[in-house]
């Protein structure tokens, strides 16, 4: 294995004196595909970063030779330093060709904090693209509510096949409600991408799930053999964590949370969780207009139990998945 890359993105500056962590967690080089893994795109979700640190440390301590390159990155560093979802804008809602074109044409001196982070992440991703090797993106997240890990498919068919191979339930159709995500942008012109939701923010089980997702993705992308012990163990853990959950669901409803005084409700005896089964007419939440009820039977996805965020919850139904990777 080679040492960490000496190349770095253009420096960014801020009037905020809060010290920022390095963008690059680690870069472990090998011949073959490049897997870019990003943690902390939302600053109140550090579990992905902890998972990446653990995986990179284990790979180096064991001296494993990769058949490709793993690039582990921190996402929104200023938001991470403050423990906030975002600073000026959500860094996972700004990735559109038009916004990026305007950003890259503009003088960097005019950038606000979100612009700086977006510019630096684009630099890292574009540098990987210039290698000419196949690219994969893994975007690591956690949720404000409890529940099993799952992945969100926001890209094209190669992205659907990547997500289906990881060993997690796949949530489809969110790209019809959520715009400007890093994963969807990456899938158009760079390579296959997926979002992994490891579980509730701050839980040790969430970190373990995200570690397993990283190893599983290393198997799918070719950095490790599919039969490698790390890959097989990771997929077994994910399978055990998601038993009795549909392999594929498609979102059919989004409940907004921004500007409507949204408050998520409670299930009998506990808070609602990801993949809770709900029935039409169930009381799920409240907003300034009153009670919010389930539109029809389905599975509850990402109920919001934090102050930040524009999505109150989603409802999904079981669906057929994409074809498996040949």
Structure in words:
With 326 residues, the chain is of the alpha/beta class. It folds into two domains: 24-241, Zn peptidases (Aminopeptidase); 252-318, OB fold (Dihydrolipoamide Acetyltransferase, E2P), CATH 2.40.50. Helices cover 29% and strands 25% of the residues. It has helices at residues 47-62, 77-82, 97-105, 113-129, 157-166, 182-187, 204-221, 229-241, and strands spanning 24-28, 34-39, 69-74, 135-143, 150-152, 170-172, 191-200, 248-256, 263-264, 266-267, 270-271, 276-278, 283-287, 290-293, 298-301, 311-318. The strands form three sheets. The protein has an eleven-stranded mixed β-sheet with strand order 1-3-2-4-7-5-6-8-16-15-12, with helices on both faces. β10 (266-267) and β11 form a beta hairpin. The protein is globular and about 55 Å long. The two termini are 29 Å apart.
Which key phrases capture this entry?
single chain; 326 residues; alpha/beta; Aminopeptidase; OB fold (Dihydrolipoamide Acetyltransferase, E2P); 2 domains; eleven-stranded mixed sheet; three-stranded antiparallel sheet; 8 helices; globular; disordered N terminus
